[in-house]
């Protein structure tokens, strides 16, 4: 089974456009891409847009946007399944000629009866094969028909799945499923098999909700005498509580993760590590992952989505992201907070402050929020906690400290810190007792980067001005 060693690997991601690229889909795409990269193969994209009501341009764009944001770039042109209906029908009709398929004239009422019998016997509905060996000439003239696969009825089929291992199903459990509907449109089962074949797909890597379909698809592939792909059915992502992923758990489009302030490389690394591992290495560049990626390395148990973990991973990538990029990524968020754009000077201030801001944030929204104090107009408004630090004692300390800071010669973090420390020692005041009111006055909050760094990046005039605004206040 499987493609011969010499056939170049072709993988594909085949999403049905449902309005967004959900994270399970993103992970499937990533595995397909990595496997292609790992084997020097090709990764293709096929949009399964045969459901015309749901497959709007917006839904397709959402998938393409999501893939682009995650840098999951495919090779060659996108294949649109809806454009290939004529080819699908041609294959079904060809199979009719070779006897691998047959026309079924069973009426809607007959099928309903089969369904009812199945319900009564508490088993899944299976078409009973009533037209399998009957001559089509027995059907009334011009009666509508579907084309069904003449599936094997005896024996069993085993799929050796790279993730699930050997899985066997009895042929008696699979019925003669429909390939072509009476209106001439292909079924999903037919379309997938024909497209995978025509695209030269050697490895089908997809969610394990498709494992059952694989047995039917394989029966069709064999009837057509086509080469069989290798299969890897990847466990779905579940919520932290182990239940099937729902909106409540974060079964959202990747665009929602972008809005939550995750970096694409962080989401990628998180999705990669979710149910796949290589030793205890935590972080991989794409090239590193591709160098060691195997399908067998994918775990068989459902992966659980863990936001805390994702945030930690994101924090890691934020810390190592380069500063101009981070400025670009949070600029719009800051503008929304301030209800105005940043000036070039402010952008420069943000860039200079970034090394102090980024070690403290777990996502881009937090990063943006933590920088907002830089751009507030004097006198700045203090939050409640900061206000609390500036009681009369705090304000008294701040007033004395103002003179120390004003006397600093060279306006650098080191010089400011030395002067303040020296003063704290002389006056026998704990550094915290000084830093807290200072932070409140300068940032209007009680959390910020190191206060000496804040002083340096804000500059002498702005810093002293903000201190004066608080010192000058009457209690
Ligand atoms: N279009 C299917 C889906 O979005 C995937 C089909 C396949 O990978 O074979 O679930």
Automatic annotation (TrEMBL):
Keyword ATP-binding set for record: yes
Catalyzed reactions: tRNA(Glu) + L-glutamate + ATP = L-glutamyl-tRNA(Glu) + AMP + diphosphate
Enzyme class, spelled out: ligase
EC number: 6.1.1.17
Renumbered ranges of motif 'HIGH' region: 15-25
Alphabetical UniProt keywords: Aminoacyl-tRNA synthetase, ATP-binding, Cytoplasm, Ligase, Nucleotide-binding, Protein biosynthesis
InterPro entries, alphabetized: aa-tRNA-synth_I_cd-bd (IPR045462), aa-tRNA-synth_I_codon-bd_sub2 (IPR020751), aa-tRNA-synth_I_CS (IPR001412), aa_tRNA-synth_I_cd-bd_sf (IPR008925), Glu-tRNA-ligase_bac/mito (IPR004527), Glu/Gln-tRNA-synth (IPR000924), Glu/Gln-tRNA-synth_Ib_cat-dom (IPR020058), GluQ/Sye (IPR049940)
MF-aspect GO terms: ATP binding; glutamate-tRNA ligase activity; tRNA binding; zinc ion binding
Domain of life: Bacteria
Compartments, record wording: Cytoplasm
Oligomeric and partner information: Monomer.
NCBIfam families reported for this sequence: gltX_bact (TIGR00464)
Protein function: Catalyzes the attachment of glutamate to tRNA(Glu) in a two-step reaction: glutamate is first activated by ATP to form Glu-AMP and then transferred to the acceptor end of tRNA(Glu).
Protein name (Swiss-Prot/TrEMBL): Glutamate--tRNA ligase
Lineage: Bacteria, Pseudomonadati, Pseudomonadota, Alphaproteobacteria, Sphingomonadales
